[in-house]
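Lab notes, practical 5.
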Amino acid sequence: MRLTVQTREVRHADEFEKIFAAISKAHPDALYIAGSMLLFANLKRTAGFALKSRLPSIYNGKDFVDEGGLLSYGADLTASYRRVAYYVDRILKGAKPSDLPVEQPKNFELVINLKTAKQIGVTIPQKVLARADKVIR
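Output from the prediction step:
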């Protein structure tokens, strides 16, 4: 596919502007933002940068798309939290945590923001839209 991947790491909130400047200087074709608590706490800032820079942006959490990111694909956190509640219930009823199986997420969500797509000049194929769990119009 001839992709060149460049990574940037943000460890503190005061590093965002420096990272945004480095990204702008590199002229990427798109952004993939891997979630972390720091990025989640600054999701408006991150999604705003991508939108202002007219960069297609992909996230692993739908909250970024609600703030203007282009799309997200990731585990359905609501379903995952329900499973956590199930495990807590089992432990409170006497199950040993070490006896409970480790699980991978089973439900994933694709969320697309068509307002953002239009604003940055990206066309989302109809086949992709049909597979989306949520489309922001």
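Observations recorded by the TA: The chain has a mean pLDDT of 95. The longest strand covers residues 108-113.
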